[in-house]
Give the backbone structure.
Amino acid sequence: MTMTAMQACSTIQHHRGDAIVVTTMGAMNTLDKISNNALNVACVPLMGGAASLGLGLALARPERPVLVLDGDASLLMELGGLVSVAQAAPPNFAHFVLNNSTQFAGLGNLETPGAKTVDFAGMAKSAGYQATHRITDADDFEHRIAAILAGPQPAFVELIIESDPPVLGADKPSVEMTDQRFTRMGDELRRIRATLVEA
């Protein structure tokens, strides 16, 4: 069996508990369809910064789990985030990378550089993450996620997922992005702060 972004995000959503969840790109679009939790924050337009944003939240709120839902192309933009997370070693941090070997998944579907050779879990292990995993099957992920979240952290989980078919092309032009797309991260971080103050 394989795994889709929806299956991966649904499993994480089901097991998140009271965690803050940081998303980017494809994971953001998928989680938006199934969760409007006040502790969700989209790391857009800070492309590649999901791990670093999640790290700051994990260090600021050590009593609360932080889950980062990253993408392979996004992570490649800021690989230094792996080292920063490993050095800080927050014990409340799980980093999930939805690896579909595709940039702009569901849009133009360009192959991610190094798609055939990059070992993200190996990179995270070398950087110093306390636990690393590579999972290719939705049922296996469902079976293992509770132990991963209860295990040593920071944890890194590379999830191999299918790529969505492109929706852009010569006969399917792109639509203009709204201003909300670019103010969303700040708006959601303020919402998280307000939610945690009230908690």
User: Anything to note?
Assistant: The chain has a mean pLDDT of 88. The helical segments are 5-15, 25-32, 50-60, 72-77, 80-88, 120-127, 138-150, 180-198. The first strand starts at residue 20 and ends at 23.
